[in-house]
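Notes for week 9. Today we move from apo structures to complexes. The key idea is that a small molecule is not decoration. When we ask for a structure prediction with zinc ion present, the ligand SMILES becomes part of the input, just like the chain. The input block below holds both the sequence and the ligand string. Read it once before you look at the output, and try to guess where the molecule might sit.
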Amino acid sequence: MRAVSLLEVNRLVVGEVERPVPAAGQCLIKVLVCGICGTDRHIYKGEYPSGKPVILGHEFGGIIEEVAAGSKFKVGQVVSIDPNIVCGKCSDCLAGRTAFCPELTALGVNINGGLAEYVLTPDSQIYPVIDGLNPLHLAFIEPLACSIRGLDLAELKGGERVAVLGGGVIGLLVVQLAKLAGASEIVLVTRQKFRREVALKIGATRVIDPKVENVEQVLSGIDVTFECAGAPETIAQSQEITRRGGSIIILGLTAAATKLEINPFNIVVNELRIQGSFLNPLTQARAAELVGSGKLNLDILISKVIDLDGVAAVLDAPPAEGDIKYLVCP
Ligand SMILES: [Zn+2]
Ligand SMILES: [Zn+2]
């Protein structure tokens, strides 16, 4: 089978590898689609730890091609995959904090993932989807599950003023989730014109171009700020625009070595809550269901569908103006 393997930092090869055979408790999935995201770029550049060599791709779904004897799954089922594998037995797993499991490994990060024609998947990671789902939408279930985690941490009750900093896939999913959660105002901040236009079509009530408007001057009193850019400047902005007693939920991933300044005085006297949101603990099933419900506009987020041979060029270049999500159909 063909696959995209990361051999070392900044070195990908597309080529033939042996097609795996499912052992007990595993299925072989024929990949229908795999999304490429910022984490893949961080892994590729050595800014996020990963195994090597490894087949990349952690946002994928497909059709069950082969099952082990006695499997509860059936050949031909269309499924989404939660790439994050945990032990299920440690104190963190038992408390629902599965992202902190010391045995956490991930398909497409530490073990072979979905940028391949086929991928071996433990049964515990498989979530069937409704019949007739647009197969391209399978690639959004994992990033949506991560976004749902951020919304859960924000505890929106309805009526809040929400700011979303960053207009990538996570930012644009958070806009839609905040709308479903009943936020009264949703402001999206991004430099990219196309992303601002998309945001207005899917629930943002206002958009801001930070190149034109000074975000810290024009925005204040925000109940919940979702930082979805993973940039020091937007994390700093979050601390200025969020109201006293408000929350800052950081979903954006910076490079592991990034440091930034905080103002502890402001955090104390304003009782700011700064909360990280990591991975998708126990949210994959809800994400699969929400994607199946058709309540989200996902087609508007798809920029281009490419094949395995196009992946290296996408990871080499920064995201182009007007691009949101690249999908790979192996
Ligand atoms: Zn991702
Ligand atoms: Zn565990």
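Residues 86-87, 89-90, 92-93, 101, 103 surround zinc ion (ligand 2) (CB under 6 Å).
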